[in-house]
Amino acid sequence: MSGIVSCSLRYFTATAIRRRSSGLSLQTLFPSGASLTSGLRAPTSSAPPSHGTPSPSPSLLSVMSTSSRNSSFSADHSDITYLTQEQATNIDVELFGDYGFTIDQLMELAGLAVATAIAKAYPPPSKAPPPKVLICSGPGNNGGDGLVAARHLKWFGYDPCIFYPKQTAKPIFAALRRQCEEMEISFMSFLPDANLVDNNFTLAVDALFGFGFKPPVRPEFVEVLQKMCRFKTPIVSVDVPSGWDVETGPHQDSIKPDMVVSLTAPKKGMQNFHGKHYLGGRYIPDSLAAKFNLKLPRYPGTELVVQLG
Ligand SMILES: NC(=O)C1=CN([C@@H]2O[C@H](COP(=O)(O)OP(=O)(O)OC[C@H]3O[C@@H](n4cnc5c(N)ncnc54)[C@H](O)[C@@H]3O)[C@@H](O)[C@H]2O)[C@H](O)CC1
Ligand SMILES: [K+]
């Protein structure tokens, strides 16, 4: 049996077992009495199937289309959910608890989504030196997303450089730093003044604080944010523009990013943001979205990000 068919069967069997454990029987899933193999034929070569190849049985099609039609994910972006800080935290707790994800997994997807959105919005020119990107990483997971994004940006044809003023002791952050160093991404020991940044960097990534930020900014980060406020180089903020109140948004002295890449779902403070806005974090299971009553945009095809504005 080919790998594709055995994979499909494993998927349908696993789905059936899960559904059965939540009260649905195989009979309910395949009411026509079709066996798990009916309607599926192992291809004999890598050639595309001929017109004579039987289609999956209607019962299989109904299982497939139900899962891609979940009401939490919609093509209409006008009524998507904006999260409170508490909701964002509770979703994290679920992801790392009952849903069995690890922080490394989700941070990798988050950082990759950020790099992908940057490559869409600010594509690197094909015949020029790689654009220099300044990544400002903070002490929490938002900062970790920045370190991951730096690595992917390097692969995508940029020249990232990291300012990481407060590294915490957790091994994941030491590992992310090491990976960047091994990729010859430089770390800066200080944040240059705005004019130096403007003259030397095409883009700045703000990965200082995300939904874990509690105002006001503590003294150790005041100068950093003041400098960032003066950047003319466009800023791309990860999840939440740093220093903004997660729920009420900017105040008079806040940074003004050109673009924000929200993760999971935008936070309430983003409701009046009019810059470029992408959503990433394509890892929310349907059941979790339903549990939190989330309205999320549907990601097209294999995309890791979807543009909201
Ligand atoms: N579920 C997801 O979508 C995922 C999101 N990710 C990213 O993780 C951050 C949230 O991470 P967390 O570690 O909880 O918080 P932050 O990084 O936002 O900040 C915590 C960090 O900041 C310090 N801090 C808090 N307030 C202040 C302040 N007023 N002044 C100075 N410092 C402050 C605090 O002490 C901590 O050290 C989310 O936004 C996403 O970007 C995951 O990567 C993947 C899953
Ligand atoms: K941020």
CATH fold group: Rossmann fold
State the end-to-end CA separation: 46 Å
Helical coverage, percent range = 25-40%
% residues in beta strands = 5-15%
| Structural class label | alpha/beta
In CATH's first tier, which class applies? Alpha Beta
The coarse silhouette is globular
Q: How many structural domains in the coordinates? A: 1
In terms of per-residue confidence, which ranges show pLDDT below 50 for 5 or more consecutive residues?
1-69
- Largest beta sheet: strand ordering: 4-3-2-5-6-7-8-10
Instruction: Sketch the topology as an H/E string, one letter per element.
Output: HHHEHHEHEHEHEHEEEHEE
In DSSP terms, counting alpha (H) and pi (I) runs of 4 or more, how many helices? Answer: 10
- Average of per-residue pLDDT values: 83
Q: If classified by CATH, what would the architecture be? A: 3-Layer(aba) Sandwich
Bound molecules: ligand LP7C6HRI, potassium ion
Rg over CA atoms: 23 Å
Main pleated sheet: 8 strands, mixed
Q: At the fourth CATH level, what is the homologous superfamily? A: YjeF N-terminal domain
Number of strands: 10
